[in-house]
Amino acid sequence: MRWRYFIILQAIILLLAVGLVYKHQDKVTLVKTPPTELAQWYKPENKRQVWLHNMFKLRREMQAVEFYAQNKDAEHLQKWVVQLNQHYVKISDMVPVWQNKLSLETMSELIKASEENDFSSVLVQHKVMQKSCDSCHDDYQAITALTYRTPDFSNIQITHEISFVEHMDTLTRQVNQIKISAQDGNKPLALASLADLTDSMESLGGSCVDCHKKDRQAYPSEVMKKTLQSLQVSLESGTAKQQGRDLGTLAVLACARCHGTHRIAVGAKQKIVKDVGFSDLIKH
């Protein structure tokens, strides 16, 4: 009798859990995060993007195998199958926990078919392998890129006293102060805030070149500087419409374009890598 009550209680708890999950399905996103061992094959832990280069080789080799099988070119087919096998097996060498995700049996069948010049079988096994690759990419490709290829701004210092995050907050406040002061007819404060913003943008540019080493795009750019000058003129003697147009143009050039690349990715990364405690789950 006691076991019957226990089983009924467990069933009720399970139904409640299922009901809660279903009720909140519009607020929950399921994400598979890559194993931490993957970090050692990406910068900055590694000098080179080893994992990426191995993936690029596999993609090229998969294309070559399909091409030469379709054209019944046995010599080149076997050459590329050997390379494909080498870099495919390397996945489990770099991340051992992913060994069970590899279709090693399919790879063996592909090698056997290529050695026997069975081109139709090569294409069949190639298709099976492609589906296996795609399923793993569906689970991990986007999340891995977010985790390991999104820049980290948390350790950047503009000065010894001011962090990157603090400086960005200052820039936002300066832009808004220009708008507020201009709307309220406080020309001196609007111009002073613009001067502060100009100096702050110059300081920010010094941190940008640390990452943008090959394409050393100046920040602020010449276009941004001309817009700053135009904004100064409109604040001194222009109409509210001219002031709004210049400030809006500056916000797009100096803020929105960089944010469109970096801020979205960084924000998503922070959500992915954040440790979730039991209290967070309960709260959610």
Report what the structure shows.
This protein folds into 2 domains: 36-149, Four Helix Bundle (Hemerythrin (Met), subunit A) (Up-down Bundle), CATH 1.20.120; 164-273. Helix content is 72%, strand content 0%. The protein has helices spanning 2-23, 50-70, 74-94, 104-115, 119-149, 164-183, 187-208, 222-237, 240-261, 263-273, 278-283. It is extended, with a radius of gyration of 28 Å. The two termini are 37 Å apart.
Q: Given the helix and strand composition, which structural class is it?
A: mainly alpha
Work out the helicity level. over 70%
Number of strands: 0
List low-confidence stretches.
Answer: none
Instruction: Please outline the major beta sheet.
Output: none
Q: Tell me the series of helices and strands, N- to C-terminal.
A: HHHHHHHHHHH
**What oligomerization state is this entry in?**
single chain
What's the CATH topology label of the largest domain?
Answer: Four Helix Bundle (Hemerythrin (Met), subunit A)
